[in-house]
Specification:
The complex is a heterodimer. Chain A contains twelve helices and no strands. By secondary structure, chain A is mainly alpha-helical. The longest helix of chain A has 30 residues. Chain B is of the alpha/beta class. Chain B has two domains: about 230 residues, Rossmann fold (3-Layer(aba) Sandwich), CATH 3.40.50; about 180 residues, Rossmann fold. Helix content of chain B is about 30%, strand content about 25%. Chain B contains 17 helices and 23 strands. Chain B is globular and about 65 Å long. Classes of the chains: A mainly alpha, B alpha/beta. At the A-B interface, α7 and α8 of A face α2 and α3 of B. The complex binds adenosine-5'-triphosphate and magnesium ion.
């Protein structure tokens, strides 16, 4: 494998992990305040279709991404209202909403199937850095969204562990009663972060249709929402591990293409399932390790509805 | 909202508060006031409505009827935040601290007087300052989960005070403390009151109340039955006003077993075990309890009691060593149940009972396979409820509606239910951990009575308790635990409290064992 090819492969892996990275980082924020939005896959789908339609109508990928974010936010808020405010079971509501998203996007999107996107998210080479040998090709010839996505976990880590706001967020996820007696509106903050998570998942979805596959098809997210959801667990609720998890998934996803180019002779079906199987396998390994170290650290109140007292 | 200047004491008045839960009136309309600079004790039997009244005062519950005044001014609370803004803070028995945070971080939750960017150093300095201001020692950088109960409580009190509480409500603060910690707390409360704070103190320990309080109020069945100055009351008069049918409530003198000790029943041999963090908790501990015998295991909390209790009950695996009952090895919960082990765990809300389920389901948790209440896979609801009603009656539960959720029972009533369940049926051995914690004097006496009865019936009773007095009162033999080993053993007759205290503290025995 020559250098240029390897650099391109890395570039592709990073590029196609973008949607997952953004969605998983958003989900991390949601889970840090004690809610898991299991409807992530649905939120991404809604964002993917809305973003694509907006792109087609306005001809602007920026507006497409914004529309994806807004739609994702709105859809996530449905989840938030039912689970956070009405305290209904998150799994039941989440699964129902995924089915709703699948069905409605398939119907509404039917006239957009197999239509080429009129606007695509362009690559933005970073001056100087992009012309470095190897690294330039591998890292600095991405889209703006990918750069931002890369930075996102660092920003989130800073907010969570270095700011007053982050301290309060974590308190809500660990022990909402402690936060409540301190005058923090548990319900308010939880809703807010469900919305933020929705924006990010929606943008992630729109990135799939406007930046990766450049078209719409039913169930275009193909489980990426689930992977993002799983990566938060894999990462042990540590923002920087989200980066690792997302890129690991990206690397497994490009292996199929690499294999074809290199003529490894492995059936392509094997490579299609590899990212999923591989992610699950690595997650189990990590969970095992964390367990034996006694260091699994999910937010203690994750998934528990808040009642005062 | 009233703004109270720092330092000045404020009074709290509760006028005509009524709080109903469904058909039950937990607090029924009376006037009570709490004066600044005083420790005001609130007494009453289990389910009398003490916690409910105070939860209303601290904004956790909204009253159906009634008024609250702070420093003479009417207030209305929609949340605990409103109450704390008015200067009223409450420390519950179940702390609401973030276990994973450090002390300093816990004190910083929701705080406005810290920068938007937090630095560990800033938070630690602030925690030290808070500790100094209110005269309570804390270690800012320690993780709360690793603290003793007493230390956690100090953090909780500091947090409440640092938010500007002028009225401090403590719900059974000493129920979970060791004797030394309790004493320290009482000293602290007195000095806070001396500085002008209004302290409201709920407790079942009459001696403690008499030593710390300036004023004592007694509730019964949701009503106020007495409100007296300290000098107007004594042990007898307090107990009398707490219970309408007072008479047998006094602690009984220790009764020697009528029957002599029988064969070995519960045998623990060479147990090695680790705690959650992987540190060695039990170092080859061996112990045996005979039929017709109560063995009291004493030790400062955190010396391996929890691991031992769980291993005997079959819910934790030791690294090595065995537990057997009547010669049959116990490896899991099923074994323990079959061998007839009753288990009253320390953690009543998590391990002992299922709070979100009704009384009747909780009552049959350990016997659901028994023909008495089920047939094959089907639970005979009617029979089960009948069983539960009988159990509720036998332990004098405050309600006989067995569809009540356990989380709606008062703390003491939940404990009564648990103890009753574990001591009934066909048992051969019992492990009881702090089994009278949170019980009023009468209910505590009833549970002790049952433990003694269990001994008469030939059970082997292992009593694990932080309450040394209780252990001495009940046990035939006392075993001292320190850092995972047995460091001393005494027959009840020649138990020397000072010696036991020294051993609990880690000093080596000076000869007599
Ligand atoms: N949320 C609730 N729903 C229904 N009933 C409740 C609820 N909270 C308390 N009760 C009932 O109100 C009564 C008073 O309870 P409370 O907790 O105030 O008693 P208490 O005096 O604090 O007793 P203890 O000494 O056992 O703690 C009890 O009968 C209890 O079962
Ligand atoms: Mg109570």
């Amino acid at each position: 494998m020559d250098y240029q090819f390897l650099a391109l492969t890395i570039a592709t892996a990073i590029g196609i992990s973008t949607a997952i990275l953004v969605a998983a980082t958003g989900e991390l924020l949601v889970e840090k305040v004690g809610v898991y939005n299991i409807a992530l896959e649905g939120v991404m789908l809604v964002g993917a279709l809305t973003g694509f339609i907006a792109g087609q109508t306005t001809g602007s990928w920026v507006l497409g991404l914004i529309a994806g974010g807004v739609a994702g936010c709105a859809f996530a808020m449905v989840f938030g209202l039912i689970t956070v405010v009405l305290r209904t079971d998150m799994i039941v509501v989440g699964v129902a909403l995924i089915l709703v998203a699948l069905g409605t996007t398939q119907t509404i999107g039917s006239s957009y199937v197999a239509v080429e996107a009129v606007t695509k998210i362009p690559n933005a080479d970073i001056p100087v850095l992009s012309s470095l040998p190897f690294i330039g090709t591998a890292l600095f010839q991405q889209t703006w969204v990918t750069y931002i996505a890369m930075a996102l976990p660092f920003v989130v880590a800073f907010i969570l562990f270095r700011t007053r706001h982050g301290l309060n967020m974590r308190a809500i996820g660990e022990n909402p009663n402690a936060a409540d007696t301190a005058g923090i509106s548990v319900i308010g903050w939880r809703l807010f972060y469900v919305a933020v998570g929705g924006v990010l998942a929606g943008v992630g979805g729109a990135y799939i249709t406007l930046g990766i596959v450049d078209s719409w098809a039913g169930n275009v997210t193909a489980g990426q929402g689930w992977i993002a959801f799983a990566i938060v667990f894999f990462a042990g609720w540590q923002p920087l591990w989200i980066l690792v998890g997302a890129y690991f998934f990206g690397a497994l996803s490009v292996l199929g293409d690499v294999g074809q180019v290199m003529g490894w002779g492995v059936p392509s079906e094997a490579f299609t399932v590899l990212p999923y199987v591989g992610t699950v396998a690595v997650m189990m390994l990590r969970a095992w390790k964390q367990k034996s170290k006694g260091a699994v650290s999910w937010p203690a109140a994750l998934g528990l509805p808040f009642y005062r007292g | 909202m009233t703004v109270v200047t720092d330092g000045a004491g404020v009074s709290l008045e509760l006028n005509g508060i009524v709080k109903r839960f469904g058909d039950l009136t937990a607090v029924s309309s009376f006037d009570i006031s709490f004066a600044p600079g005083q420790v005001h004790a609130l007494l009453g039997e289990n389910g009398a409505g003490k916690s409910t009244l105070m939860n209303v005062a601290a904004g956790f519950l909204t009253p159906d009827v009634g008024e609250i005044a702070v420093g003479g001014q009417q207030v209305r609370f929609g949340s605990p935040k409103d109450a704390i803004d008015a200067g009223i803070g409450m420390v519950h028995q179940h702390f609401s601290l973030v276990e994973q945070f450090t002390v300093a971080q816990n004190l910083a939750i929701g705080a406005r007087d810290i920068g938007r960017l937090t630095s560990t150093k800033e938070l630690n300095t602030r925690a030290l300052e808070i500790g100094e201001r209110y005269g309570l020692k804390v270690s800012p950088s320690k993780v709360v989960g690793s603290l003793s109960v007493g230390e956690k409580q100090r953090v909780e009190i500091l947090r409440t005070l640092s938010r500007g509480a002028r009225v401090l409500i403590l719900d059974e603060p000493t129920a979970v403390l060791t004797p030394e910690e309790s004493e320290q707390l009482c000293v602290n409360l007195r000095s806070m009151a001396g500085a002008g704070a209004t302290i409201i103190f709920i407790s079942h320990k009459l001696n403690e109340v008499l030593s710390v309080a300036d004023h004592v109020s007694v509730m019964r069945g949701g009503a106020l039955v007495d409100s007296l100055e300290r000098r107007e009351c004594n042990l007898q008069s307090l107990a009398k006003s707490m219970f309408d049918d007072f008479g047998t409530a006094d602690e009984r003198p220790r009764t020697q077993s009528a029957t002599s000790i029988g064969e070995e029943v519960l045998v623990v041999r060479g147990i090695q075990a680790r705690d959650e963090r992987g540190a060695v908790a039990l170092k080859g501990l061996s112990l045996s309890v005979h039929a017709h015998e109560i063995v009291g295991l004493v030790g400062v909390a955190g010396n391996g009691q929890q691991e031992l209790e769980q291993i005997v009950a079959g819910i934790r695996k030791p690294d090595s060593g065995t537990v057997s009952i009547h010669g049959t090895q116990v490896g899991n919960v099923q074994d323990a149940l079959k061998a007839g082990l009753g288990y009253i765990p320390e953690d009543r809300r998590g391990t002992g009972l299922v709070p979100a389920q009704p009384i009747w389901l909780n009552s049959i948790l350990r016997i659901y396979k028994d023909d008495l209440v089920s047939k094959g896979l089907i639970i005979k609801t009617g029979k089960a409820k009948k069983y539960a009603r009988d159990l509720a009656e036998s332990v004098n539960l405050s309600t006989n509606d067995v569809t009540t959720l356990v989380q709606h029972l008062s703390g003491g009533n939940a404990q009564k239910l648990l103890a009753g369940r574990e001591l009934s049926g066909d048992k051969s051995a019992v492990v009881a951990v702090n089994s009278t914690q949170g019980l009023d004097v009468k209910a505590a006496a009833a549970v002790r009575e049952r433990l003694i009865q269990a001994r008469e019936d030939g059970l082997a009773v292992l009593l694990i308790s932080a309450d040394l007095d209780e252990v001495v009162l009940l046990s035939d033999r006392i075993v001292v635990l320190y850092e995972g080993s047995v460091v001393g053993e005494f027959a009840a007759e020649d138990a020397d409290l000072d010696e036991i205290g020294r051993l609990m503290g880690g000093e080596t025995s000076n000869g007599n064992s």
